[in-house]
Each structure stands twice: as structure tokens, then as C-alpha cells.
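dumping this here before i forget
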Amino acid sequence: MSDGQSYRYDPSAFRQVFERNFTYVAGVHRNSHRYANRPALHDPASGRRWTYAELWADAGSLAVGLTSAGVARGEVVVFSLFNGPEFVLVWLAAMRLGAIAAPINSRLSPGEVAHVLDDSRPRAFIYDAALAGTATDALARARHDPQVVAVAGEHGDATLLSELIDHGRGVPIMDLPAVSTYDETTRLYTSGTTGDAEGRVAERPGRRALRHDVIMHFPAHARDRTLNMTPWFHRGGLYSGGPTRCCTAAPKRSRCASFTRRRCSTGCRSKA
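structure:
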């Protein structure tokens, strides 16, 4: 410098942007405004479609519903759901309230689900009605008793996921949680082939930077579409394409994330 003093880099401005604005949920929040009227999610089984603004609103309503039921920031939400709107809404809602989303393999046995419940000790456990038998058995086996148990569909006296969403409608949407890019937001479990399944933190700055590298390498344009045919409880399926960037790849009636339609009806090739 001209006055003879050495320059000292101040990283505070970079840290403020990187640590607060590079979380996954912050990116979806930006898209809810930037691409508010563009299609974000399509469920071929029901024909239901969401724009980015609608998806953000419904995820916010579910976040409010979960908070009212007793789920707080930093607590774990375990869910066993198929590729579909419910998966997306629960995952985003958990991140919206600052909780830790833990999607698990929908093919796990009751004993394996019970192990996850005891290991992560979630505040909430959400499952698809088609998995009611497994879920009920797992809850009976587990030592940990989640405070909130909800079902996507109908199963006995269990709280309906739709009720939690409806409970949050009309309530002022909460601001984004003050979480850092280093905080745990998603927890995935290993397959358990060589021992008990273990929870692993899925979100790390390096993995987030890797996704940006992939976008630049392809290169991917803002109007491009990806078709994600992998189970979303996998890290690759959850983050490579992302369930908020394309339609639901598997019709819910198939109950199989690898089911392939002969003719795609999502309109991915049409302009947004």
C-alpha cells in the first residue's frame, strides 16, 4: 500500500455470503422468487403440479405444522417415503425450520428402521401409508418414542401429513433459519451391509462446491431440465438432480423408484 502498511485480507464479507447464502434451502428460497411461476414439481400419479412459489409456500406450511407439533431447530425428522411430493415437502420443511432431515430407505426392515430411530432419536417420524406395517412394527421395537408420528395417506389414528400442512396454512411463514453452511441439515444412513447402518452428514461445503462444478462442467443452463430416476434417499439421487429441480420420476402407484414410463408426460422439453 502507498502508506507502507501491508495489506491484510478481511474475509468477513465472503464468509457472510458463503456461510449464509450457500445452503440448499437458501437456493430453493431464491428460486421461489426468481422462478416463482415456473414448474418445480409434477406428480404424474395425481396430476398435481407445483410452481416454485407454491412449493415454497406448502413447505412453509408444513414447517409451521411441524413446529406447532413440537419439532424444533436442531432436532431430527426421520421419514420413510417414496419419490414423490411428500418427500420433497418434508425434506424442505425440515430445513426451513432448521431441523435435520433424515430420509431412510423405504425398503428397510422393521428392525433396521427401529435401529435408525434409536440411533438418531428423532423428534418426528413420518412414513407412507403403504409402509404402515413396517412402521408400526419398528415403533414397537424401538426404545426411542418419537413425539410426532405422521403418515402420508391414512393409517389408523396416526396424524396425517396433510393435517400438519393444513394446520400451517394461513400462519405467517417463518423466516429462513439462521443456519450456517457448515451446520447439519441432512443425515443419510449407510446401507448397513457390513454392520449396523450409520448416520452420515450429507451436507458439507465441499459437496456443495462439487455440485457447482458439475453445473459448470455440463454446462447447465437455467432453463435446462434433469430427469432423476434414482431413489431420493440416496445421496446421489438427493443432490445430483435434486427433487426440487425436476418432476417426480416414479409414478406413486408403482411404489418403485426405478420404475420407468414408456412415454414421459412431464413436459420437461417444453419451455418453462
